[in-house]
Design brief:
About 55% of the residues lie in helices and about 5% in strands. The chain is mostly helical. It has one domain. The protein has a two-stranded antiparallel ribbon. Helix 3 packs across helix 4, helix 3 packs across helix 6 and helix 4 packs across helix 6. The radius of gyration is 19 Å and the shape is globular. The mean pLDDT is about 75. Keywords: Signal.
């Protein structure tokens, strides 16, 4: 009896994982990287317009989350260039196509993309944008107290 309960729970978990993966990483979800990889080169399509909105929303969410500053007024997660000596740039001011160029550059160097092609790119657009920003604009190493 216990064997059947365990088997049933394992089956339920595997199907729910597949459903979750299909929902959030599908080619029809504009916030997923699968959608991005399929449509980022079709500039004149409606899907590209959806993609621009998704990238902008991801950038605004990342900007809001990472505006926390440490005691030296530096961003904790990544360090954008300085606008002037008093303040850093913000993602609010960036052109969406520049953000997409960062994502594209990260995809080109992604080992999963090199190994598996388009199938190797999964997850939300925001995570790829955050990783691309951390690689392009790393914060200087700070002394730990």
């Amino acid at each position: 009896m216990k064997k059947w309960i365990v088997l049933g729970l394992a089956t339920l978990c595997s199907f729910s994982t597949l459903a979750f993966d299909e929902l959030f990483n599908s080619k029809s979800n504009p916030a997923s990287m699968r959608y991005y990889v399929e449509h980022y080169q079709n500039i004149n399509s409606q899907e590209y317009k959806y993609l621009l909105v998704s990238v902008r929303a991801a950038a605004d969410a990342i900007n809001f989350y990472t505006t926390r500053l440490d005691e030296r007024n530096q961003r904790i997660d990544y360090c954008l260039p300085m606008k002037n000596p008093a303040s850093r740039e913000a993602l609010w001011d960036w052109n969406t196509k520049d953000l997409m160029a960062l994502i594209n550059n990260h995809i080109e160097h992604d080992p999963n993309f090199k190994k598996y092609g388009k199938v190797g790119i999964t997850g939300p657009i925001g995570s790829y944008l955050a990783i691309a920003l951390k690689e392009q604009y790393p914060c200087p190493v700070q002394k730990q107290w």
